[in-house]
Amino acid sequence: MKICLDKELPPEKEFEQGIRRAPDRGFRLNRKQTETALKNALRYVAPRHHKTLIPEFLNELKTRGRIYGYRFRPEGRIKAKPINEYRGNCIQAKAIQVMIDNNLDFDVALYPYELVTYGETGRVCQNWMQYCLIKKYLEAMTCDQTLVMQSGHPLGLFRSSPDNPRVIITNGLMVGLYDNPDDWEIAAQMGVSSYGQMTAGGWMYIGPQGIVHGTYNTLLNAGRKMCGVNDDKDLSGLLFVSSGLGGMSGAQPKAAKIAGAVSITAEVDFSRIETRHSQGWIDMVSDDLETIASMAEQAIKTGSNTSIAYHGNIVDLLQFINDKNIKVDLLSDQTSCHVAHDGGYCPAGISFEERTRLLAEDRETFKKLVDKSLARHFNLIRQITAKGTYFFDYGNAFLKAVFDAGVTEVAKNGKDAKDGFIFPSYFEDIMGPIFDYGYGPFRWVCLSGKPEDLDRTDMAAMSCINPERRPEDRDNYEWIKNAKANRLVVGSQARILYQDASGRVAIALKFNDMVRKGEVSAPIMLGRDHHDPGGTDSPFRETANIYDGSNVCADMATHCFAGNAARGMTMVALHNGGGTGIGKAINGGFGLVLDGSEQVDNIIKSSMLWDVMGGVARRNWARNKNAMQVAAEYNINNDNTDQITIPYEADDAEIKKAVDDLF
Ligand code: NAD
After folding, report:
1. 80 and 101 in contact (C-beta within 8 Å)?
2. What is the mean pLDDT of each run of 10 residues along the chain (663 residues)?
């Protein structure tokens, strides 16, 4: 083997104080599995070091529930550096290193030492041996090779060609019979499966800004639809209450602020409050409920968009709100309920520290407390919504977790989750119809690392948007116009901007031209969140507004991934799990390096279009109105090259009559 880890064992490492650490995931392997897990981790290291590493790896497994190989982590802080500071034989491989390092930045990642970027468990890869080997492969890679990544493991470099992907990634894919959290957990502890979630394992995370825009859109449209806010007004005077100030959830106060609302966000972990406070995304903090209430009252009275953090449990906050009849306009939750029993949800009645202890020492008790708390949480939401508050599930599998906790009345049909829940997910009511048009969280990273390049791309993107076309275009135009002033950058010089297919293609071509002409000082990485019209199949989130029965199918996301690979995206990813948990979603994403070449122009014209229109075509086939409209327009505009199959619609009354006769 020419490409392998360094011959000498790196020294054991100190952990920097104040950097958040992942909780112990609880050691659950039997004797045989433990032996295999050790052998699996040692596969990366020359045998002469095994004696040293066996007790060390065994200790990590026993005390943390995973082998992370901490000593292999490079010394100091990992950060996205400017692309020209990376080693490599092709631009694409250097660009990918920028993206990986950004996902592990102390300022960006949730648990950087455990390679977790966000969402409690969403990771770049499984361990530091993999990280080192991935880097070595990327440094050696030429434009005629593709790196194959299987659940964090770099399988090897294989010959391909310049118009093929440089990296193909899969994470957490399980054979159907074993596609459940328990079997997956064993595979993860044995070191053969990884939870990539979405852009964590797809290496396209751009910090919390990625979700700020989506949350802003969701809140704005929830206010318009449910609270009578006019299309051209913001949410001034409205109160939004939610929980979670973590990786993604931390976007909530900032998004509410940009949308003009007052917000209260409950968070049990004080370190996360501190992070958002230091960024200026939280204005005021208290652990006293009376103080919180008077801060909110004052902000509403003065029409200011104050963001308030409650240091405490969301259940206690909701109990107080209910008891005192405080008027809440919009209510949600963004605790990590997709892994509620793995530490994602802190039960009411215990401290955050006690939660961490129980998670490691007594998972049975922890699970019981979580389920009890979820049931109480749900009951409070019922009481508060009965007074006129609009509650929406914000894609964290909260309602599913309530159902799994034994509360069957949360299900619409009272027996299973197949017909959805009594409260809509934000996707059914708010974002689904917007996705049906093809709008989604398109993004880019200026690989020079220079803020002035980001400014130039912001201006260029703005020039591609016609704010008069649809209300969504106006919102997106406003977003990009104010993006710099809203100081959204954390980590790499990146921008999120919701766009549809034609908008994304236009902006991508413009950016590639700017790279070609030297109007920006380095190539640009384009991509998107996996949470996109075509990227994700998940009946509890992205495909919750698909009603033709195919919401349980994962064909769309698989085709999106395959089509992107075939058309030459620089990196493509396909994952199990996403934001709703193992077995509940299949999702994929891509990254495309704009190097200014004509070849990339061609990839943009075929691949970027396919990436979105594959999703619109499927949503159209599910008879979703906005998607049918876009598909019909697409057929006219692309008459010579493409065609989408449009559904014929049946007469509801005739169908009902025929079926009535049958039953
Ligand atoms: P995270 O784990 O980083 O943050 C969740 C936070 O909730 C943590 O800081 C935790 O301390 C806090 N918390 C847990 N229980 C609590 C309780 N009872 N009261 C108060 N605080 C509590 O995860 P994240 O990246 O912020 O993601 C959160 C959830 O949102 C995940 O399930 C994720 O899949 C989902 N998500 C949804 C979208 C979307 O587009 N709708 C996008 C991203 C993430």
Report:
1. yes
2. 96 94 95 98 98 98 97 96 98 98 96 95 98 98 98 98 97 98 97 98 94 92 93 92 93 95 98 92 97 98 95 98 98 95 96 94 95 98 97 92 96 90 89 96 98 98 96 93 94 97 98 98 98 96 95 97 98 95 97 98 97 98 98 96 97 96 89
Specify the pLDDT at position 438: 98
Ligand 1 nearest atom to the CA of residue 352, by list position: 11
Q: Residue 210: what pLDDT? A: 86
Does ligand 1 lie within 6 Å of residue 269's CB atom? yes
Percent of residues, the chain, with pLDDT higher than 90? 94
* Parallel/antiparallel/unpaired status of strands 145-150 and 167-171: parallel
Q: Does residue 208's CB lie within 6 angstroms of at least one atom of ligand 1?
A: no
78 CB-near residues (< 8 Å, 6+ apart): 101, 104, 105, 106, 112
3-state secondary structure (DSSP) of residue 525? strand
Q: Which residue type occupies 483?
A: A
Q: Whose CA is nearest to atom 35 of ligand 1?
A: 396
Total count of residues recorded for the chain: 663
pLDDT digits (tens, 9 = 90+) for 529-555: 999 999 999 998 999 999 999 999 999
Q: Is the shortest distance between the CB of 438 and ligand 1 below 6 Å?
A: no
Going from the Cα of 244 to the center of ligand 1, the distance in angstroms, rounded, reads 5
pLDDT value of residue 114: 98
**For position 198, what pLDDT does the model report?**
97
Ligand 1 site-directed mutation target among 289, 334, 496, most atoms within 8 Å of CB: 334
Q: Is the CB of 248 under 6 A from ligand 1?
A: yes
Alpha-helical (H) ranges within 156-208 are 181-189
Q: Is 536 in the pocket of ligand 1 (CB under 6 A)?
A: no
User: Alpha-carbon dihedral of residues 167, 578, 117, 14, nearest 10 degrees?
Assistant: -90
Residues 6+ apart with CB under 8 A from 176: none
Q: Containing H/E element for 615? A: helix 609-621
Cα 165–chain centre separation: 22
Question: Does the beta carbon of 356 sit less than 6 angstroms from any atom of ligand 1?
Answer: no
Mutate to test the pocket of ligand 1, among 110, 241, 249 (most ligand atoms within 8 A of CB): 249
DSSP class of residue 438 equals: T
586 lines ligand 1 (CB under 6 A): no
What is the value of pTM for the model shown?
0.92
10 Å Cβ neighbour count for 450?
Answer: 15
Ligand 1: distance of its center to the CA of 181 in Å? 18
Per-residue model confidence (pLDDT) at position 501:
98
Alpha carbons 262 and 63: distance in angstroms, whole number: 42
| Residues 6 or more apart whose Cβ sits within 8 Å of residue 157 | 3, 137, 140, 141, 145, 146, 147, 148
152 C-beta closer than 6 A to ligand 1: no
Alpha helical stretches, state H, 270-362: 270-278, 289-302, 314-323, 352-361
CA dihedral defined by 617, 621, 623, 625, rounded to 10 degrees? 10
For residue 295, what pLDDT is reported?
Answer: 98
At which residue do the structure tokens 């919401």 appear?
Answer: 551
Ligand 1 test: best mutation among 118, 248, 399, most atoms within 8 Å of CB? 248
120 lines ligand 1 (CB under 6 A): yes
